[in-house]
Amino acid sequence: MPIDPEELSPRIKTPEFALGQDLSAFSEHELAARIAAMENEIARCRDAIKSRQATKNAAAAFFKPS
Fold first, then answer.
1. Is the Cβ–Cβ distance between 20 and 28 less than 8 Å?
2. Distances (CA, A) of 55 to 12, 20, 35, 43
3. What is the pLDDT of residue 38?
4. How many CA atoms lie within 13 A of 38 on its CB side?
5. Vertex 49, ends 48 and 54: CA angle to 5°?
6. pTM of the prediction?
7. Which residues in the chain show pLDDT less than 50?
8. Rounded Cα distance, 23 and 12, in Å
9. What is the pLDDT of residue 64?
10. Under 8 Å CB-to-CB from 37, ≥6 apart: which residues?
11. Which of 7, 11, 30, 34 pairs as cysteine with 26 (C-beta 3.0–4.6 A)?
12. Residue 17: which residues within 8 A CB-CB, separation 6 or more?
């Protein structure tokens, strides 16, 4: 069975929102969902920052001169 090249390429997920986008066409429910999505993304970014800081601190402790 041949493989479809479309199945091999990575799928790029389009963002649910764009910064600065006109909000006049969105309903109250859509705006609330947009805020929730942004808050989730902020939390994900904060977790990534904590992870990077932990890695940096571990490396600094390991290579700290005695």
1. no
2. 29, 34, 30, 18
3. 93
4. 9
5. 100
6. 0.66
7. none
8. 24
9. 85
10. 16, 17
11. 30
12. 34, 37, 38
